[in-house]
Write a structure and sequence with these properties.
The complex is a heterotrimer of chains A (267), B (371) and C (377). Chain B is α/β, with parallel strands linked by helices and 371 residues long. Helices cover 40% and strands 17% of the residues of chain B. Classes of the chains: A alpha/beta (267), B alpha/beta (371), C mainly alpha (377).
Chain lengths: 267, 371, 377
């Protein structure tokens, strides 16, 4: 389903260099509201760098970022948060001893009289949000997060970002450590988030998940976008060949020095 | 971002566990530091202890323990003498230092250096002794912090030809120290027992609040007290507790003991912090003034306690005399003259009644030598 | 690409969920009940009271004895409340004893210099004692949070420097002063003022820790400082405030000590830091951060307090007291920790790996079989 609208978040010609290593060499990226865009690529392709640049963790050395079509600069992750962009990295950034509601509102607590926690309101709001998102496995939002299973914790982290995001959510390998059933649940959650109108960017190595949930796929290779697919066109074989560089459907200038890029460009 | 590998956590847990045990062992009986060395006390009422020391002077002094013997020394002396206190900032040792400085000034030609540890602890004092030995003085006046542990450095000092004079506390090794000058702590305990007995009408239950076991001076005081108090048929001695030199611990001891022995009649507290805590404990329990306390030593805070009625009697030593005589003996030793191996100074008991008398108040310890 | 079927949970073995999610939820309930403020240390305290009541009820269980015990533990209570905050952030403060001494000394000197008596002088002295503690606390916080020196080392440094500073101020000699004696030793309605003050500190710090955003952020930083940073909490700034609070309370503890004993005690307060940490640990505060409570610390202060009181009443020889208290301390903390871990589903090798992984910000495996290998960082 395509809308002829501008992407909610877009990066054009992004460049990011670490010392002598060019992690991004003019990378493009776009995600539209109400869609799930998968960002895939081999190790060292530049996926995590791209996410960091688009979510305010780092500044690009070149290129431009557009938010709803307007150029924008994220000076910090807080800046990006304020504009409605949330990220869930692989470490989940949860405080294990605090409960799900406390984690959901961490740093953005609902207050009474300015200094006190509005605990009941935060709990109710969290339960409501979880229900809306279809997160049914976390029954007790007052239990410390460390007593939850891996899948539940992932759900809490993703749901937290869904509660606050207004535009885009980046999910970095959300199913990497999960079992089959839990993975299904997380993918359902992703669909719920998408259906609320947010743009979801899914970074993953798990191609079956991509086929399952993504509306669009963008392939990164050596710091550049080399292929894009719509949902109906993608198959695992095609995705693999795009990742390995055998297949490309974008006109790109070939990198001048392949070997230099290959070495050391971390995620 | 913290990483807490298992090994480090185990180490931290073990450390906290052991430290906690040490803490509470300390609270009840094992660790802690003393800042005040239970100072030594003068000999009993008889002139038993003191022999006249001066060998240069013609005659011997009468066995009067009250006066410092007058000795004469050559005019052309040039000696270095270091006084290592038991602990710094303690009025007992400050008074002793005053005696040391005055003796040096009177004799002439003596350069005095004063050192000491932050608390009464051999692990702190021994390194100081080592440094002093390295600086090579002619003589050292020292109040050793531990009867065993202090022997090592002092033996080394003697091996290097430094004359060692022990003041106040001693070490077990008899070969250390050409002269030992101290109050007779045992006799002081005896005097404390007599003073307390008199205050309570010679009947009732009494206890001792000591600092911690293993310090020569307070151990002797306790012994002296225990033996003498046993001679009173109507006084019951219920035992000793240790304050670890913390007033808060002494207060706890007193309040708990009063719960078990509501008729407690009197307390002997062997140093300043013990006496302070004891007074507070009695105040808490509303027994201030009812239960006499006999304290030891007379620094400004203790004199104030006596004034205010927190404490009823103070057994005072003569640290000034000890310091003064210490210098005399040290100089004799350096000059190769005959020294007096043991000198015991006596003590004075101050009470609320006699503390105004200058004969008594002259013995109050000084907080600084400029007074 | 075929549209995926909406996921459906179809149990294949008669309805028992193969996943761990449901069971984890149930365990969570149990854990919540069990963690009600160090329930188990309260049990130990109750057992202790029972024991001494049975052995010596007429002497131990009197109002008078209990009030006196309360008086005796009041200063430590104040200091330990501050230590609780620091421990929850996974830090430690060894300087509390020295700061108490500084508080005593500054308060005494201020009172004397201001004239010596009267309410105004007393208040000035109290304020000065608290202020100097607060300043040292800021130094500690800056060292830990901005200079990134481990808390053990920073507070060790201020511990040593603090005593030196006190000695410099007083030329090494203790300063007697009676102006605050009423605060330290008088009673109102039969209750000592100092006990009321201690209670007041407990209430205020309890509210601060358990009901305010400040308290929640304290727990968050101790639980996962990186997570706190990511959501925008100013972690270094917050840590400075926590250490400053602990310092102020230590300074106040010194002021109360001066009030009780009418003199400074420069060579004293030696075991204060470890007693404060032990009290917090007894009350359920973890030295690794993230867990703790003020109510628990209060129980943790009372357990050794009652123990020391009781064994003196029973006439136990002094040399045994240390062993008894040490065993009770370690046993209580072990028991409480064991129950917590069991309830939280974090016992055994799997459980320990979970906590370690969450802290090290690594992805954690769930118990069920994973078909995808975790990515390597």
């Amino acid at each position: 389903m395509t809308t002829a609208s501008t992407p909610v978040l877009e990066g054009r010609e992004l460049v990011r260099t670490y010392g002598t290593v060019q992690a991004l060499q003019g990378a493009d990226f776009a995600v539209e509201a109400g869609t799930v865009t998968a960002l895939i690529g081999d190790n060292g392709a530049g996926k995590s760098t791209l996410v960091k640049v688009l979510s305010g963790v780092e500044q690009p050395d070149g290129g431009v970022i557009l938010l709803d079509g307007e150029p924008v600069v994220f000076r910090s992750p807080m800046d990006a948060h304020r504009r409605g962009i949330e990220t869930v990295f692989q470490d989940l950034a949860l405080a294990p001893h605090l409960d799900a509601a406390a984690n959901a509102f961490l740093g953005r607590e609902l207050r009474r009289f300015r200094v006190f926690n509005a605990r009941r309101e935060m709990r109710r709001s969290t339960m409501k949000s979880f229900a809306e998102l279809g997160v049914t496995t976390v029954q007790d939002v007052s239990a410390p997060v460390m007593s939850l299973s891996g899948g539940q914790r992932q759900a809490v982290a993703v749901a937290r970002s869904a509660m606050w995001a207004k535009r885009v959510i980046f999910l970095d390998e959300p199913t990497a450590a999960l079992g089959v059933v839990q993975t299904r649940r997380v993918l359902d959650l992703i669909r719920q988030i998408r259906d609320r109108g947010l743009g979801v960017v899914l970074i993953t190595h798990t191609l079956p998940d991509v086929i399952d949930v993504a509306d669009r796929v963008e392939v990164l290779r050596f710091g550049r976008r080399t292929a894009t697919f719509d949902r109906d066109d993608a198959t695992v074989e095609l995705l693999v060949s795009a990742i390995t560089g055998v297949y490309s459907n974008i006109q790109v200038a070939q990198p001048t020095d392949v070997t230099e890029l290959d070495v050391g460009a971390g995620r | 971002m913290r990483k807490t590998p298992i090994r480090r956590r185990a180490a931290i847990t073990a450390a906290v566990g052991m430290a906690s045990i040490a803490v509470f062992a300390g609270a009840a009986g094992a660790s802690g530091d003393t800042t005040e060395p239970p100072s030594t006390e003068a000999a009993g009422t008889e002139a038993a202890g003191t022999e006249a020391a001066g060998t240069e002077a013609a005659g011997t002094e009468p066995a009067g323990t009250e006066a410092i013997p007058e000795l004469t020394f050559p005019d052309d002396l040039d000696l270095d003498l270091t006084f290592v206190q038991g602990v710094i900032g303690d009025e007992f040792y400050i008074s002793m230092e005053c005696g040391v400085q005055d003796a040096a000034a009177d004799i002439g030609g003596i350069t005095v250096d004063v050192q000491g540890p932050d608390s009464f602890d051999a692990t702190l004092q021994n390194p100081i002794l080592d440094s002093v030995i390295a600086s090579g003085p002619d003589a050292i006046l020292v109040a050793p912090n531990d009867v065993e542990a202090s022997a090592g450095p002092l033996q080394r000092a003697q091996d290097e030809g430094i004359q060692v004079v022990l003041v106040d506390t001693v070490v077990n090794d008899e070969s250390i120290g050409v002269s030992r000058i101290a109050s007779d702590n045992f006799g002081g305990g005896v005097a404390a027992a007599d003073a307390l007995a008199e205050l309570i009408g010679e009947e009732g239950e009494v206890m001792v609040i000591n600092v911690k076991p293993g310090i020569s001076t307070t151990d002797l005081r306790q012994q002296g007290f225990e033996e003498q108090i046993a001679t009173y048929p109507d006084i019951e001695y219920i035992g000793v507790e240790f304050s670890q030199n913390e007033p808060a611990t002494a207060a706890e001891i007193v309040t708990a003991t009063l719960a078990a022995h509501p008729d407690l009649a009197g307390i002997f507290a062997t140093n300043l912090f013990s006496a302070q805590g004891t007074a507070t404990g009695l105040l808490q329990a509303g027994k201030q003034g009812e239960v006499p306390i006999v304290g030891f030593d007379a620094g400004p805070a203790q004199v104030e306690q006596l004034q205010a009625g927190d404490v009823q009697a103070l057994v005072m030593q003569k640290p000034y005399d000890i310091g003064y005589q210490g210098v005399q003996q040290a100089v004799l030793a350096v000059l190769g003259e005959e020294v007096t191996p043991e000198i015991q100074t006596d003590f004075v008991v101050a009470t609320a009644d006699n503390m105004e008398d200058p004969e008594i108040s002259q013995y109050f310890y000084k907080a600084s030598c400029d007074e | 690409m075929t549209a995926p079927a909406k996921s459906v949970l179809t149990p294949v073995d008669g309805g028992r969920p193969a996943d761990t999610d449901e069971t984890a939820g149930r365990r969570g309930m149990l854990q919540r009940l069990g963690s009600v403020t160090a329930l188990y240390t309260v049990a130990v305290f109750a057992a202790e009271l029972l024991f001494f009541s049975l052995r010596a009820s007429d002497r131990f269980l009197t109002t008078n004895n209990l009030i006196l015990t309360a008086q005796n533990v009041a200063v430590l209570t104040v200091v330990a409340c501050g230590a609780t905050f620091v421990l929850i952030t996974a830090g430690v403060d060894l300087s509390v004893g020295s700061v108490a001494i500084l508080g005593e000394v500054v308060a005494a000197k201020t009172i004397i210099n201001a004239g010596g008596d009267g309410l105004f002088d007393a208040l000035l002295g109290i304020a000065a004692g608290i202020a100097v503690g607060w300043v040292v606390g800021i130094i500690n916080g800056v060292g830990v949070a901005y200079l990134k020196v481990p808390p053990l080392i920073v507070t060790l440094g201020t511990m040593l420097a603090g005593v030196s500073a006190a000695q410099i101020i007083t030329d090494g000699v203790n300063v007697p002063n009676r102006t605050l004696n009423g605060l330290g030793n008088d009673r109102i309605g039969g209750v000592p003022y100092i006990v009321l003050v201690g209670l007041g500190v407990v209430i205020v710090t309890g509210i601060l820790l358990h009901f305010t955003v400040f308290g929640r952020h304290t727990y968050a930083i101790g639980s996962n400082a990186e997570a706190a940073r990511r959501v925008g909490i100013n972690v270094p700034g917050h840590l400075v405030k926590v250490y400053a609070l602990a310092g102020a309370l230590s300074g106040f503890g010194g002021v109360l000590s001066l009030a009780r004993f009418n003199t400074t005690s420069i060579g004293g307060h030696q075991s204060d830091p470890l007693e404060a940490i032990a009290a917090a640990a007894l009350g359920g505060t973890s030295v690794f951060g993230g867990i703790g409570s003020v109510a628990g610390t209060v129980v943790g202060v009372w357990i050794p307090g009652v123990l020391r009181n009781g064994i003196i009443i029973l006439g136990v020889q002094p040399y045994w007291q240390g062993i008894i208290i040490g065993l009770v301390l370690v046993g209580t903390v072990w028991f409480d920790q064991y129950r917590r871990r069991a309830a939280a589903g974090t016992t055994g090798p799997t459980g320990r790996k979970r906590i370690a992984a969450m802290r090290a910000n690594r992805p954690t495996k769930s118990r069920s079989q994973s078909t995808h290998p975790p990515t390597n960082q």
